[in-house]
Amino acid sequence: MQSPVVAAVYERVWRPAFTRLFSLGGGGTAELHDALLADLALEGETTLLDVGCGPGLYTRRLASGLRGDGLAVGVDLSAPMLRRAAADNSGSHIAYVRASALDLPFPDGAFGTVVCLAALYLIPDPERAVREMCRTAAHDGEVVVFTSLRTPLSSLPFAERALAAGGYRLFGRHEVTGWLRAEGLTAIEQKLSGQGQFIRARRA
C-alpha cells in the first residue's frame, strides 16, 4: 500500500476486485455495501473519521452532504495513497492526515462517526486499531466496520495462504464485535454476507 502504482489503481481496480471477492458465497454483499454507504452519507455539520482511507473514495462519498463546519477526515499511513486522495477526492469539507491507525492523533470523542471500510484486515494490530476507533468516537457516536470474515471457503488452505501472503487477515464472526464490546459498545448490529461482515456499533 506504500506503492504509487497500487495507489494509482486502487480505487478503480484493486478495491472493486476485493469487494467482488467478499461477495463469493453471498450475492448480497455489493447491495449491503452500497446500502451502508448511502445510509452513512452525512449531512449538515457532523464529523467523520475514515480510518485507512486509502485514496479517499469512501471519504469523499461520505462527506458529500456536509455543510457549514461539517468535516470528514481521512487517515492513512501511506503517503502515495494520501497524495492520490488529495488529487482525486478532496473537497471543502474533507481533510487528509497521515497517521497510523494504531495511534490516531485526535482527542477522545472527537468524531460523531468513525469508520474503517475494507481496511481493517490490512492493519498489523487490528484490535488496537479498533480501540483507537472507539476512543475517538463521541460517547453517542457510531463505529462502523466493513471487513473480512473467516468462513469455510476463505479458510481453505490455499485461500488462507494466498490472503496471508498478501498481508490480509481473516476475522472470526465474533472477533471484531468482541473488541467493540470490550470498549463499552453494546448496541451492535452485524450483517454477514459471503466472505465479508458489516458491523455498526454504539454505546447503548
Report on the structure:
This protein has 204 residues and is α/β, with parallel strands linked by helices. The protein has one domain (4-202): Rossmann fold (3-Layer(aba) Sandwich). Helix content is 37%, strand content 26%. The chain has helices at residues 4-22, 29-40, 57-62, 79-88, 126-136, 157-165, 175-182; strands at 43-44, 47-51, 65-66, 71-76, 94-98, 111-117, 137-148, 187-193, 196-202. The strands form two sheets. Strands 5-4-2-6-7-9-8 form a seven-stranded mixed β-sheet, with helices on both faces. A two-stranded parallel sheet has the order 1-3. Helix 4 (79-88) links the parallel strand 4 (71-76) and strand 5. It is globular and about 50 Å long. 41% of the residues are buried.
Give the CATH H-level superfamily: Vaccinia Virus protein VP39
Would you state the CATH class?
Alpha Beta
Low-confidence spans: 5-9
Query: In oligomeric terms, what are we looking at?
Result: single chain
Helical proportion, percent range: 25-40%
Q: Roughly how many Å apart are the termini?
A: 36 Å
Nearest-angstrom radius of gyration? 16 Å
Q: Provide the number of structural domains.
A: 1
Major β-sheet annotation: 7 strands, mixed
CATH topology tier name? Rossmann fold
Mean pLDDT: 87
Overall, the morphology is globular
Q: Biggest sheet: strands side by side, in what order?
A: 5-4-2-6-7-9-8
CATH architecture: 3-Layer(aba) Sandwich
